[in-house]
Amino acid sequence: MLGPVTTGRPTRARTHRRPRSRTVRVLLALVAAAALLGVAVVVVPMLRPAGPRPLFQMPVACGETWQLGTYPGHDDYDVDLFPTEGDAWGRPVVASYAGTVTVAGINGSLGGRTPENPQGPRGRGGGYWVKIDHGGKWETQYLHMLEPPLVKVGQKVAQGEQIGRLGSTGNSGAPHLHYEQRRGWDKVETHFDGAPSGITTDDREYTVKRTSNNCPAVS
């Protein structure tokens, strides 16, 4: 006589699988919630309106006169700064406004242009560079510096504090400072000491001279 015949999976196996399925669903829900929270932490602050524009000063020493310029293909709002007197190599690059350093390193590749070999091979990108967060969704960027920055990520800097030295690293044809002001994700026209630079588009070559008022506060 044949014993009892069963078909399908044992009941015990099914009861074991159901708790596992519920556990997986709970874990997936937790992961999704954590991902949404992470996105919100990053995106929500960027959706808030920007704060008032800080009173940015030129990123060079007090009292020095520099040429600000752009050229076709440079990109809108980008400013190149060249000193009008003296050697450009190694000039101090200073913070336009107080803030926190968020980037201090290499953008692209350095190339080989130095004071000893000014016609050396170009690199790529911005070379040695620094980015400073000034709060209220405002930041500044400083590119093509000669040497590793004098500041580190997370460091608080004061307006006028030296952050590096002017050079020609990265994709640069001559020693100068490439400078940008940004509001949130967007580049904007640079203002120095409350006055617009006049550099808005790169559809033509444009230069203007300005004297730095990035001077120590009078106590």
From TrEMBL:
Region (Disordered): 1-20
Keyword Transmembrane helix: yes
Keywords: Membrane, Transmembrane, Transmembrane helix
Domain M23ase beta-sheet core span(s) in chain numbering: 90-188
Amino acid composition bias (Basic residues), ranges on this chain: 11-20
Gene3D superfamilies: Glucose Permease (Domain IIA)
CDD domains: M23_peptidase
Residues spanning the membrane: 26-47
Keyword presence, Transmembrane helix: yes
Residue spans of biased composition, Low complexity class: 1-10
GO MF, one annotated term: metalloendopeptidase activity
PANTHER family assigned: MUREIN HYDROLASE ACTIVATOR ENVC, PEPTIDASE-RELATED
Name of the protein: M23 family metallopeptidase
